[in-house]
Structure formats: C-alpha cells, structure tokens
Amino acid sequence: MNIYSIDEPAFLKDLNEKELVQLASDVREFLIESCAVTGGHIGANLGVVELTIALHKYFDSPSDKLIFDVGHQAYIHKILTGRSADFATLRQYKGLCGFPKMRESEHDVWEAGHSSTSLSAAMGFAKARDIKGEKNHVVPIIGDGALTGGMALEALNHIGSDKTNMTIILNDNEMSIAPNVGALHNMLGRMRTNTQYNKFKHGAEEFIERLPQVGTTLRDLADRFKDSTKYMFVDGIFFEELGIKYIGPVDGHNFEDLGAAIKTSKEYDGPVIIHVITKKGKGYHPAEHDKLGIWHGLGPYKIETGEVLGTKKTESWSAFMSNTVLDRAHKDESIVAMTPAMPVGSKLTKFQNELPERFFDTGIAEQHAVTMAAGMAAAGMKPYLAIYSTFLQRGYDQLLHDVDRQNLDVLLGIDRSGLVGADGETHQGVFDLSFIAPLPNITLMMPRDEKEAEMMIDLSFSTPGPMAIRYPRGNVHGIDMNEDRGPLEIGTWEVLREGTDAALVSYGPTLQTVMEAADKLSAEGIEVKVINARFIKPLDNAMLDTLGESGVPVFVIEEAMLTGGLGSMISSYMHDKMYTNKMQRLGIDNEYIEHGDVNLLLRDIGITAENIAGRTKQLTGETHEKNTNR
Ligand SMILES: Cc1ncc(C[n+]2csc(CCOP(=O)(O)OP(=O)(O)O)c2C)c(N)n1
Ligand SMILES: CC(=O)[C@@H](O)[C@H](O)COP(=O)(O)O
Ligand SMILES: [Mg+2]
C-alpha cells in the first residue's frame, strides 16, 4: 500500500486480516526507512504497528479518545491520520513533532512526552464524557515501563473504585528504555505466561453459565470457587482486585486476537485493561534484539548494518559525569548511584556492572527516587542521583520537602540541562534554575567544561548538604584534565576575560558564545569582562558588590527561563543593594521552546555571538564613549 495515500483511518474498517497484515508490513518498511534518515523512537514504534492499526480499526478516533502515554510510540497513529508526508521533518525545526501534538491533528486529543500521565488524563476525559452524557470510548495506551510511574497507580486506584468506563491498553514489551524493572514488571511476567489461568477461567465461566437456574446459591458458590482459584495460578489478578476487568495476555501482533479483545472490552460496562504482549523493535533485527535500550530512540542509522551514524569524538557529558562518580565510588563505599529508569541515557550502566550492589534503577519513579536518595543520605550514604532536568520536575516536592529542607547530602546530576533539541518542549531542561533557586540549602552549579565538572563532583562529595550539578545534552570538550585551576570554593565565580565597558555573566556551554561576542566587541574597541557564574546558587556576592560599586553595565545571558533564572537572581541582588548598574537579561522569555536543531532554537532566542555583541553595544553606548574619552 502507498503509505503516503493515507489521510484518515476510516479505510481500515473495510480491510480484512490479510490486508491488515500487508498494511502492517508496509508501515514497518516506511518507518525503518524514514527513521534511518531522521532518527527517532524507532524501537518503540515498531512494536506497536499492529496494535495501533487495530485501535484505529475498532475504535472511531477522534470521537473515541486514543491517549498515548509518553507519546513516543505514536508514529503509526500519525501515519494513519494523514501525516506520512511530514515524516521527513520528524523532530526537526518547525517539523513534525515526535509526540502527539494537538495542532497537528484532531486525532491528537492529548499531548505527552513525560511518562505515566495517560490514565489520569483518560479519567478526566471519561468523567467529562459521563457528565455530558456522551457515549464515546476512552482508550489510554500505556506501556509496562510507564505503568511503574506513581501517577499511573494513583489513576488505577481511582478508575477501579469509580468503575469508570474505559479500555486501558497495557502495551507490555518487557522494556522500559532499558529492560523494565520492578515488582509490577515481574507480576506482568507471570501474567504473560499464565495462559492456563485464562483458559481455566474461561472454562469455569462457561460451566457456571450452564448451571441450572436453581436459585443463586449454586451459582454464587461456583463463582466464588472460580475467583478463589485464580490465586492458584497467578499472584492475584492485580487489576481485577482493583475493580478493573483484566483481558489477556493478548498477542499484540495478531489482528484476530486484538480484534476479539477490543470487541469484548467495548461491550463491558466498567473499566477494562487489555494486557497486550508486543516485541519492541519488531521487524528490524538490530532493534528487535536490542537488550540495552539503544534502539528505544536514537539518531540516523544505516539500515543494512544497524550502524548508528554520527558518533562523536569525545565522550558524552553523561558518560563523563557517571564515570567520574564511579571512579570516586571505587574509593568511597558510601557513594551510591541512582537513576529513575534512565541507566542508558545517564550512562550509568558501567556503574551498574562494576558496583551492582550500589546501583539502583527505581523505574520511572522520580518522586520515589528523590526521596529514596534522601533516605540513603539520612542513613549516612552519599547518593548520586542522575536525573534529567525535565524529569526532575516530577520529583520537585520530594527535592524540597525531603532533600533540601532536611539539608541532606544528596548530589543531583541534573542531566540534559538546557535545550535538548529533537524532543522539544516537554524535554527542554530550562526550568530547573527557576524551581531550585528558592530552595534555601541546595548549591546549584554548572561547569564550563569537564575539568570544572570534576572539581564540582569532588567538592560535592566533600561538602555537607544538598548539591546539584547541571550539565547539558551532548559531549565534553576533550580538554587537558591535568590543568591546575586552584581550589574551587562554593559561591565563587571566575573571570574569564577582563574588560571595563561591561560585564557579561553566563554559565555552562553559553560561555563559549559569550566569549565569541567579547571577541567581536573587542575588534570594535569595546572591552567587556566575561564572568563564569558557575555557582548559580549561592551567588558570588563579593563579585556582584564589585560590579555594583563600579557601576558597570551588567548583561546576563542564559539558556534557561528568564523568570527565576540567574539574571532574575542577579537583578534582585543589585536592586536590593541599591546599586544603579544598567542591567540586561537574555534567555527564554515566557514561552515553551519546541523541537528542532539546538543552534536554530538558540538563534530564535537570540543567544548568538552577533546578537549578544549587538545588545552589549546598545547597553554600553554612553559608557564606552565616556571610557574612550578619558
Ligand atoms: C516522567 C518521565 N520519566 C522518564 C521518561 C523517559 N522515558 C521515555 S519512554 C520511557 C520508557 C517507557 O517504557 P514503556 O512505557 O514500557 O514504553 P515502550 O518504550 O516500551 O513502548 C522512559 C523511561 C519520561 N518520558 N518521562
Ligand atoms: C521519550 C523519552 O522521554 C526518552 O526516550 C527521551 O527521548 C530520551 O532522551 P535522550 O535521547 O536525550 O536520552
Ligand atoms: Mg515497554
């Protein structure tokens, strides 16, 4: 079938089993070829080709609400709803979003990017439907990994007690990004293999149906016997005990099985969960046999060999941080490492292999991970919690209430800080300054290179109290690690360049752009001081007082939200001390930054050497004249 000819899913209603199988094959071929060029979450999507086709065949989107959890596995949904032609722009600047996007299609009824939100959203949709007296189906599609997220369990608790009509699709491929973890995962494993219970249950139900109508006693007894035997086969049908009818395990690559299960669920009055068994990466050998989670989502690759293209010359920031912590952990038995389901992204697999007894993957459970780290610290350990900036948002109260308020020795490695690019607005790591700044005890820092990062790690492990080192997605500089930079003291900034016409203040990778701007200004006779504000909190008050007393214009540039960012913090300090320096800030101004190449996104924000130089000239106009006329 010509995939590009699809504009709406209605055509699926008329396809027979053979035609559906052919369509699935054509979609798989299209996905493998398209993602080889653009990159993307190819593994997750190859696993849900038949499932997504079946959902659009047996439900009527958009009146029936298909709600994808995380949403990284919605490529087939996008193909079936007329967006095949846009796949050449997948996750690119102004191109097709890698997650559901309401503005792209009426079929995208819910957006995501963060895990475990689909069931709560589905509950909202279902209750609104009931209040309005509508009859549409609500169908959250949640993976076995996302099911380990606390929000999902909170929602199940509510859905089951309320007996809300919905069809929950549990897409169980035994994988999170890496192999899935946790007791729920183990329980699903038993359910996956316990087909005999389902046959027995089906047989028992048929037997009970045939019992003579001799009042209810005999039938009640038989029913209770059937229910009491279920524990003989599996560790209790977790879902049915919550009041949610369990159907499964169902072969997620078999259209007949999927159709039968969905039809049954549509007729049932109350919540149903269909436990669908799929194979992540199905149909493409490297992805199908991926044990590490590399094919969960990645950049362009060579189809014939599975070779991932564009490997970098230096190691990633994640690898540098995790390997440095591992090195220290070999010398200090109190150091432990933790991750909420991101061992691959945070490059902690080496730590896991070398010190398995001091490594913890909590599953997609950021709240639990942060407070578990706090508990570890309270018990005298030195936990290193590697957590993406965007996912730390999920554990904010735990950071405030458990870690910071109790002033515990937790070290946060805030990965993917700053713009991440292809994952877009749900993943940009640009809010953490704003929500960490108000916390009284934590030290928040960002190194300008890997040498400073190493110094910050050692400083953190030797300093009591909560510490956080934020670092970007991407690779380290590959510098000489033997350079002696002297001691690193908390709250001390570093002058990278002297100048008297203005002071440009920044941190992390943005400093490179600021230094380029300083060179451009120097070529025009304007000499600016460039300050590495490597401690975002606490501020370097002494250096700010020096700037305040000199009256030099101050320009703060940061790849973060302006509100609550370093610029806000410095402006408040200067204002409270009644300094009269002219101040300027450059950063993200009250908007979500969508997906695209980071350099293009930075250009749109104005974080370029040209714009910084231009803004500085405006700022220093008179000052420079005065200085040159001395
Ligand atoms: C709150 C949150 N934490 C972590 C992630 C990173 N993440 C994206 S997909 C994924 C694994 C999801 O596994 P599963 O739900 O089983 O989906 P599958 O990829 O197996 O289809 C993780 C950990 C996220 N998107 N949101
Ligand atoms: C969908 C999701 O949240 C993850 O797959 C995320 O895309 C990983 O990001 P990195 O590629 O930066 O590790
Ligand atoms: Mg999974």
TrEMBL record:
Catalytic reaction annotation: D-glyceraldehyde 3-phosphate + pyruvate + H(+) = 1-deoxy-D-xylulose 5-phosphate + CO2
Entry-linked Pfam families: DXP_synthase_N, Transket_pyr, Transketolase_C
Single annotated GO MF: 1-deoxy-D-xylulose-5-phosphate synthase activity
Gene3D superfamilies: 3.40.50.920, 3.40.50.970
InterPro entries hit by this protein: Dxylulose-5-P_synthase (IPR005477), THDP-binding (IPR029061), Transketo_C/PFOR_II (IPR009014), Transketolase-like_Pyr-bd (IPR005475), Transketolase_BS (IPR020826), Transketolase_C (IPR033248), Transketolase_CS (IPR049557)
One cellular component term from this protein's GO annotations in UniProt: cytosol
Xref: SMART domains: Transket_pyr
UniProt-annotated binding residues for thiamine diphosphate: 72, 113-115, 145-146, 173, 284, 366
Cofactor binding annotation: Binds 1 thiamine pyrophosphate per subunit.
Residues that coordinate or bind Mg(2+): 144, 173
Transmembrane portions of the chain: none
Pathway(s) this gene product operates in, as recorded in its UniProt entry: Metabolic intermediate biosynthesis; 1-deoxy-D-xylulose 5-phosphate biosynthesis; 1-deoxy-D-xylulose 5-phosphate from D-glyceraldehyde 3-phosphate and pyruvate: step 1/1
EC number of this enzyme: 2.2.1.7
Cofactor list: thiamine diphosphate; Mg(2+)
Keywords annotated in UniProt: Isoprene biosynthesis, Magnesium, Metal-binding, Thiamine biosynthesis, Thiamine pyrophosphate, Transferase
Annotated GO biological process: isopentenyl diphosphate biosynthetic process, methylerythritol 4-phosphate pathway; pentose-phosphate shunt; reductive pentose-phosphate cycle; terpenoid biosynthetic process; thiamine biosynthetic process
The Transketolase-like pyrimidine-binding domain, residue ranges: 315-479
Family membership: Belongs to the transketolase family. DXPS subfamily.
Assembly and interaction partners: Heterodimer of an alpha and a beta chain.
Job of this protein: Catalyzes the transfer of a two-carbon ketol group from a ketose donor to an aldose acceptor, via a covalent intermediate with the cofactor thiamine pyrophosphate.
Name of the molecule in the record: 1-deoxy-D-xylulose-5-phosphate synthase
